[in-house]
Amino acid sequence: MATRSPKPSKPSSKSSSAKSSSSKRKVTVRSSVKQSAPLVAGVRETAEQSGIANQREVGRSGNFNSEGNGYANAKASTNGKGGGNSSASAATNGNSSSRRTDQRNDRVALTFLGVFIAALFFVLGAGFGNSQGNSLVDGAIDELVANSTADVDRGTLERAAIEGALKASGDGWANYFPSTTLEALNNLTANVLSGIGVSIREARSGAVEIAGIQENTPAFRNGLEVGDQLIRINGTDVQGASLTTVAALIRGDLGKDVVIQINRNGASKVFSLLTERVDVKTVDASQITPDIAYLAINTFASGTSSEFYAALNSLNSSKGVVIDLRDNPGGLIEEAVSIAELFIGRGVVVSYRANGEEKVFSANNPSPSGVPVVLMINKGTTSAAEILAGAFQDRNRGVVIGEQSFGKGSVQEFMTLKDGSKLELTVALYLTPSGRTIEGVGIVPDLRVSNSEIKVKALQILGGLAQLGSKN
Description:
Elements: E1 10-11, H1 16-61, H2 70-79, H3 84-92, H4 96-133, H5 136-147, H6 154-168, E2 175-177, H7 182-189, E3 198-202, E4 208-213, H8 218-222, E5 229-233, E6 236-237, H9 243-250, E7 257-264, E8 267-274, E9 283-289, E10 292-297, H10 304-313, E11 321-324, H11 333-344, E12 346-354, E13 357-364, E14 373-377, H12 384-394, E15 399-402, E16 410-416, E17 422-429, E18 447-448, H13 454-471
Parallel strand pairs: 10-11, 11-14, 14-15, 15-18
Antiparallel strand pairs: 1-13, 2-17, 3-4, 5-6, 5-7, 7-8, 9-10, 12-13, 16-17
Helix pairs in contact: 1-4, 2-3, 5-6, 7-9, 10-11, 11-12
């Protein structure tokens, strides 16, 4: 599951670079207005010159028909054959009132001509702008819709174009959510599992795979495993599909038959399951010894930290706590920060810088728990789970054991498009308290331990830490 980016608890003020960027945008707008001003003046000047030239040309041809225009008629009569002198004399003796009327008519004609030319430039300019505004992609889709021999849906083509652009961008965590799938997106962030009892995540290869399986569910009883890559669901190819699309195909009404084809270590398997009501749990807790508590966090969803607190309070943890983050696909950062705060107390848990602004998530607990902590991770530990492990490690608050984690430490934010659909794009990289980058690297455990021995090793470490604590 892609990490969501909640609002930080203590955002810092915008940097001077951000202000500078904003200032440049304003200057650019003003500059464009100033550049357009000479064009308008040029149109007016051209209109006036065109009108005068036209008037002179008509005067020379003798066909200018404005009533009472003595000067023009004088020119025409002088250049004509016969009666030139008498006509010229009559025209020249026209009263001043007639001349003023002629001048007003000239100005009106020039004004109308100027307006016409300006309007013509405006129309041509608008048409040119629109033609330039149509992108190459829009043009290609227009041709496909108009000329395809098959019935092609424009919306399907546009969606394919957007998803193709996201893949070509190199952002491995980018996603497109059509407006029809937004409910499924909300369900993912709220940790509403499907009706077969699985949570899903996107692997680095782009495949959608099973991230977790809840006990006593159809997936658990039928033998699905963490890491199984989903190939087809009810006959629909989901290779390369988004998480919301896959979740929507799996989830359904109670009693719905779901046929899932998976790839497990290169072998294809098919499972047929019936959906049923699943009691969603994000934390599994037990008393691993009389004085050591074991809490496995399956994912970080809304309310996970409250569930963690309640489970911890119900157990005896006087000699330590084991936090199991294996195969945790991540989730809401604020939930991970809230759990870290219970043990770390005060200080930075995670931070990132985006758009010139640093955003910091900090713990602020005046009386944190001081019991020893061991955190278990593996290659399926992802995103918010890696952030939690990294915070414990950097603050020397716990011992991290197991395998190197997945390495997904990037910040995704949502951008809403004009039709209500959303793009999820990577905007920054998370940093641990010491400034380490998780993306592409992961968390290296303090002690590498195989999965078969990890619980025994956790108890041994806690026993040793408890003895050190009693001596001090």
